[in-house]
Design brief:
The protein has 407 residues and is an alpha/beta fold. The chain has a four-stranded parallel β-sheet with strand order 5-2-1-9, covered by helices on one side. A three-stranded antiparallel β-sheet has the order 6-7-8, with no helix packed on it. The chain is flat, with a radius of gyration of 27 Å. The structure holds flavin-adenine dinucleotide (FAD).
């Protein structure tokens, strides 16, 4: 008896933790998808205007630009005319692409190189390193969702334009293999930057940032720590008299912390290890959490009807299971175009799971429903699985009928 109670309590505790973790995961994901596009756009526009204004000023006063390239900041391995021309071209052309988020990674490469040249050949300033770090981010991670790249990506992926597919594969590989290391680098570098004023005993208030830095370096509670630090910096910016250099530092720290808060520390972090351990202990954390004691809605069919029903319930407090015997939604109105070979079948078939990637109360099951037991409130699948439901939506479509006449 006692052991049964203990097991029940343990189960209950596991459910509560799983539920909490699930909600936290949803919250973080929501923050990422809603806020990160705006932060990304702000950073891109900020960087773009700095370089673009500089480029336009050079073009407006070309003699002055040549004189500066000759005497003020000569590049040791380029003649002044070439240095000024290349520099001005990069400063005028690339920021436009960066601001639009068009070919962002390619536009960020020359800007990253220019930032490093300025740092190494002209004047060593923290700001140049911040530029380089942010451009590096764009080279490796690409632009966020408010960008032409993201807008055009689906069409480009399906197009027959040369180089598009290998390039997109290359981008994915860069993000996948270099992304984790780059995030680690940004974390450790930022941690060192935030700790430096504490070491120098510069500002008593910087102790908060100093406290945050080991957490950032280790990747422990990264999003929370980065978010608190970013808000702290914002508060300091408004309430304290900062020097111009401090303001610059704080602005870029804010950008970098914001990126970490919204995108997370990446897989080379203690957070990742902890999450894996917790997922092992509380398996439901990884996905759709049954721990939440919510009504279960089963929707059979991932056609227009089923999708609309699931989407309509996106804000409802319920768990939804969409079951379809195909793993894709078929856009029937374009079947004619497939039949006449003006579209490929893949153009009108979208994976149902991908459609609900951002809707966290939905899970998608591949299976054919063979029976419904309305008394027991269960549906049966062809593999003999039985699923309980509280509410059932049957959206299995219709078959043609010729009403007994010959076809
Ligand atoms: C060629 C063509 C052109 C059309 N053009 C237009 C148009 O221009 N405009 C317009 O408004 N409408 C058009 N329609 C009609 C429109 O496509 C349908 O009305 C609509 O797709 C019906 O949606 P639904 O969700 O009810 O069913 P469906 O889209 O048929 O979806 C049913 C889903 O249920 C799944 N399913 C079925 N049985 C089971 C089961 N036992 N277990 C698990 N899953 C199951 C199926 O795999 C399917 O994914 C067209 C239809 C066709 C065929």
């Amino acid at each position: 008896m006692l052991s049964a109670i203990a097991t029940a309590l343990r189960q209950r505790r596991a459910n509560v933790i799983a539920s909490f973790m699930g909600r936290m995961g949803d919250l973080l994901h929501l923050g990422e998808v809603t806020l990160s596009p705006f932060l990304d756009l702000t950073i891109r526009l900020w960087l773009a205007q700095i370089f673009w204004v500089s480029g336009i000023l050079k073009l407006a006063n070309w003699d002055n630009a040549i004189a500066l390239a000759t005497h003020e900041y000569p590049v040791s391995w380029l003649d002044p005319l070439t240095a000024a021309s290349v520099g001005a071209a990069i400063e005028v052309i690339c920021p436009a692409f960066l601001a639009l988020g068009l070919a962002t990674r390619l536009a960020a490469i020359p800007l990253l190189s220019l930032s490093l040249v300025i740092q190494l050949e002209y004047q060593q300033l923290n700001e140049h390193l911040y530029w380089a770090a942010l451009f590096g981010w764009y080279v490796i991670m690409g632009a966020g969702s408010i960008s032409m790249d993201r807008l055009l990506a689906p069409g480009l992926a399906a197009s027959a334009l040369p180089l598009v597919k290998p390039l997109s594969r290359l981008y994915k590989a860069i993000t996948r293999y270099l992304g984790p290391a780059y995030r680690l680098f940004i974390r450790v570098w930022l941690a060192a930057l935030l700790f430096a004023p504490v070491m120098a005993g510069r500002l008593v208030l910087d102790w908060v940032l100093g406290f945050a830095s080991p957490f950032l370096a280790l990747g422990l509670a990264t999003r929370l720590i980065a978010m608190i630090s970013a808000l702290w910096l914002l508060g300091m910016g408004f309430t304290m008299n900062l020097t111009e250099l401090q303001r610059v530092d704080h602005l870029y720290w804010f950008f970098l912390l914001g990126l970490l808060a919204l995108h997370g520390p990446g897989p080379i972090a203690l957070d990742h290890v902890l999450k894996q351990q917790l997922s092992r202990l509380f398996p439901r954390i990884e996905g759709w959490s049954e721990a939440m004691d919510l009504p279960h809605v089963i929707i059979v069919g991932g056609g227009f009807g089923g999708l609309k029903a699931a989407y309509g319930l996106r804000l409802a407090a319920c768990r939804i299971t969409v079951i379809d015997k195909r793993n894709y939604h078929l856009f029937q109105p374009l079947l004619y175009q497939v039949a006449t070979a003006s579209l490929s079948p893949a153009d009108i078939a979208t994976p149902i799971r991908a459609m609900f990637r951002d809707q966290h109360n939905v899970r998608v099951l591949l299976g054919e429903v063979t029976d419904v037991d309305t008394t027991a409130r269960q549906v049966s699948l062809s593999d003999n699985t039985r699923l309980d439901y509280d509410y059932l939506v049957l959206a299995t479509g219709a078959r043609h009928s010729y009403f007994g006449r010959d076809k």
